[in-house]
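thread: overnight batch results

M.L. [08:02]
morning all. the overnight job finished for the chain we discussed friday. pasting input first so we're all looking at the same thing
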Amino acid sequence: MVQDGIGRPDDLDRLWTPHRMAYIRGENKPSDETSGECPFCRVPSLPDEEGLVVHRGETSYAVLNLYPYAPGHLMVCPYRHIADYTETTDDEAAEIAALTKRAMAVIRSVSNAGGFNIGMNQGHIAGAGIAAHLHQHVVPRWPGDQNFMPIIGRTKTLPELLSDTRDLLAKAWLG
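M.L. [08:03]
and the structure it wrote out:
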């Protein structure tokens, strides 16, 4: 029996995920609209393994999400610090689409994903965690992946370390 925050016993188990506190506190999110504090501008300057970059294109790149909804959850980001999809050049829009297609094929090949959620949250009002830099989410889905853990247990389980997922996807990306 575990005690709740004020000392009363309850019958809930706890899985501690202290790394999520950085996300909750907004750490590593840009404090303003400048590219100097943007993690999506910083990541391309890092080695691929350190930045969790899966693939680099000419105008955009694919990177694993630090706070994934599912194993293999990645994002496709333009290198340029732009906030809105309408600001993309034709080349950027085409490469974002091409990298999204390739990401789906690669993830499917290594994990047998049964489906995907693909999308961009444009602006804070629409739910963008980092609204200052455009990014498209590619979230793999499997039958039963939304089982009792996130719904009743309010816990997400990820069966693989991000560095292992990055290595697997980066190798498969090359074909």
